[in-house]
Amino acid sequence: MSQSRPVKDLTIDNITENVHAINSDCKDPRLRFLLERLVTHLHDFARETRLTTPEWEASIKFLTDVGQICTDVRQEFILLSDILGLSLLVDSIDHPKPEASTEGTVLGPFHTHDAEHSPNGALISHDPDGEPMLVVCSVKDTQGKPVAGVKIDVWETDSKGFYDVQHADRTGPDGRAVVESDEAGMFFFQAIVPVPYPIPNDGPVGRLLGVLNRHPYRPSHFHFMFDKPGFDRLITALYLRGDPYERSDAVFGVKESLVVDLGTVSDVDGLSERYGVSPSMRLLQYDFVLVGEEEVGKLRDEKAREAIRKQGMKGMSVVNGTLVPGDSSQ
């Protein structure tokens, strides 16, 4: 561990360069760059706002509270990232999408890894109070070809707006499943119509929303996560048009291309007979478009080089879509 860079007589103006100097022996160039930018922005924030000691202490206590309420089934830090818009921003940067492909959105804090693998046509929600809904979707690549064998995680709340993990008497997964696209790139299952619901607001994030005079509600939506080797993983959701919180989602997850109209099975000739459901059943349809890993990688590199040019950053290189210090020809 090198101590070759002695700290100068510290002042408000030179503290940042001193921290950079001490951190500069980090062997990982990407980590060194991330810490350099984080320290720069944190220090600039403190100087710009003239941050006080009580405000700093309150911030530390808030983050401590966020960590202490986290459990295996509740991730308050993800919730904090969500309500600050950071989750959507990071997803959009790390998973750039070409035109005509399905956009991503926030994962949210309630995805689990214990969902049962279910055959197409399965009933995934057993809430007797929910309004039955048939979900019929396709999966294609950017060339319009069906993609078979895609593993699709799906999950939603019950009719009261609670995910299964929010119930203390939970004995197993409900309102969630893992299905797979067939040879025609289709997948289908039975669920219930999504409802709007508040994010968990009994903790520090909820208190922050109250101080900011913000509501905690998410619009009605259904979660999907697509995985298949060779394709960029897609985390997305579909939102019901006309929901009262469509334009004020507490976690900034709504994108126009993901807003859908809910139909009825009888709207499509032969659908009731084909899937063996009532003609009056609600219907959710969507055509998902996945992007190949190589295509996303090239697009990520292109966006990174564009960021270098726009920000006038010298001495930077692009490595796997990220910026690292080093000679660059961009």
TrEMBL record:
The keyword Metal-binding applies. It comes from the Eukaryota. InterPro entries: 1_2-HQD/HQD, Catechol_dOase_N, Intradiol_dOase_C, Intradiol_dOase_core, Intradiol_RC_Dioxygenase. Transmembrane segments: none annotated. Keywords: Dioxygenase, Iron, Metal-binding, Oxidoreductase. Residues 28-101 form the Catechol dioxygenase N-terminal domain. Its cofactor is Fe(3+). Residues 108-291 form the Intradiol ring-cleavage dioxygenases domain. PANTHER family: DIOXYGENASE, PUTATIVE (AFU_ORTHOLOGUE AFUA_2G02910)-RELATED, INTRADIOL RING-CLEAVAGE DIOXYGENASES DOMAIN-CONTAINING PROTEIN-RELATED. Belongs to the intradiol ring-cleavage dioxygenase family. This is Hydroxyquinol 1,2-dioxygenase. It comes from Neonectria punicea.
